[in-house]
Design brief:
With 141 residues, this protein is α/β, with parallel strands linked by helices. Helices cover 22% and strands 23% of the residues.
């Protein structure tokens, strides 16, 4: 049971009445996810040339609590498979990101580049329709 406490000034004390109340907080799974991934900075790059794909993945990752700091086109548009690049040496976070996207963890590579000021890069390949952000979409190009 939760505590409800009241602190009342002593009879001869002129300080005002103070009341403190501790109310229960429900930690939903969404709140837990957002808290867990809030500090992971991600960039999402479109590596397949299909318009709007990076924006869909960005929205999905933000809903999961990731801090997507950049969305753009990749260096080329012929990536067959989606890859996740670990940029800081935190392979665990990159693998969690891959799992949430439904990317095979074999496609997680370390390419450390601290000058990017982000933790991971997602490059969406031509296999994007198999990824979690697109699983519920019916009209996938």
């Amino acid at each position: 049971s939760w505590l409800h406490r009241q602190f009342i000034a002593a009879p001869n004390d002129s300080r005002p009445f103070i009341q403190l109340s501790e109310k229960p907080t429900t930690l939903t799974s969404k709140m837990w996810m957002e808290k867990q991934f809030r500090d992971i900075k991600v960039e999402v790059l479109n590596g397949n040339g299909i318009d709007g794909i990076a924006a869909v993945a960005t929205d999905f990752l933000r809903e999961q609590g990731f801090d997507v700091v950049r969305t753009d086109d990749a260096d080329r548009t012929d990536y067959l498979y989606t890859i996740v690049k670990d940029r800081t040496g935190n392979l665990h976070s990159a693998r969690r990101l891959a799992e949430i996207l439904n990317v095979d963890t074999v496609s997680v590579i370390q390419e450390i580049n601290r000058s990017l000021v982000l933790d991971a890069t997602v490059i969406l390949g031509k296999d994007y329709a198999n990824l979690a952000p697109f699983a519920a979409l019916k009209d996938i190009p």
